[in-house]
Amino acid sequence: MGRVITIPAFSDNYIYLYQYGKGKAFAVDPADSSAVLAALRKNGLSLTMILSTHCHYDHVGGNLELKKATGCEVIGADTRRIPGLNRVVADGDIISAGPEQIHIIATPGHTDKDVCYYLPASADNPHGTVFTGDTLFIAGCGRRFGTDALTMWNSLNKLAALPPDTRVYCGHDYTVEDYEFALTVEPANDTVKQLLLKANQASAAGTPTVPSTLKQEKLTNPFLRVDIPQIRQTLNMLKSPPHEVFAELRRRKDVF
Ligand SMILES: [Zn+2]
Question: Which residues are catalytic?
Answer without folding.
Answer: 54, 56, 58-59, 110, 134, 172
